[in-house]
What we know:
By secondary structure, the protein is an alpha+beta fold.
Amino acid sequence: MAWLRGYPCSALLSLCLLALPLPSRPSRVPTAFLSCPPLPFGAAIQKQPRHRAVGPPSLSAVISQVDDYLEIKDTACFFVRSFWEQSTAIEGGLQLSEAQRAALEQVQEGDMSERYGKLVGKRKLMSELFVSRGEDGSVEACAGVEVAVADRTSGRILKRNQGEDMLSGSLAAMGARERNTLRRVSLSELADAVLPSHLGLVPVLSNLAVGSEARGQGLGQQMVAQCEEAVRGWGFGEILLLVEASNVAAVSLYKKLGYQDIWTKPIQAARVAEDGAGNIVTYEMVDTCALGKILG
């Protein structure tokens, strides 16, 4: 089910963590664990030729897929450090208290574990978390990609467990002969067959971060390319992401990598702020760009 080929595409969600925070207080935290409000459809995008890497050349990174929970915890701590405390959008980085850092690490670990962690069975909606490690074994970059169920009419994204439960429930309601006819079809074809017509699948890029010591070498581009390759392997021909409209440098980079505007719309984002009730997360609407790319 191609959301970008001949069909208006706006099925993007708050799983994406690609937007760097503004230099203001309180600052935003990862929104991967949040549910986006309904998003209206935008314009379809056109297929573009493959783009070469942008920026200085680098040695090919050794990138591995991780699903072990200890590795995910390590990656979550890296993400908080590199995405927030070493942010290039804030001079000197974001200053977090020990309590804020611990809270963000806990939230990030829980989110990554739910979406990328190893399961006894096979995930119905594919997802992968990629990590690049330096010579000393420490994480120097990470990026994730996953397939989500989206509402065509509103653009609302279902939470992972909701989407997977809907697929399972629809299959369980079928007869054995009908289920047997779907054994060899792709996930997109399966979704077309069992989901209501207003629902579809969309692959989303998220959790992209590069450590300060590894920046300027094209590593981020290699991480994006790795996620795009995973999406191709899943049988999809498009990939989507969200980035804050104010993050001009990031928007420019993604466009150089072949991503195109779909829409710009205020959506819900989270901030780091003690609200007096012991909660570290508060919410506000932030202008956000939805960008998409047809994969060659």
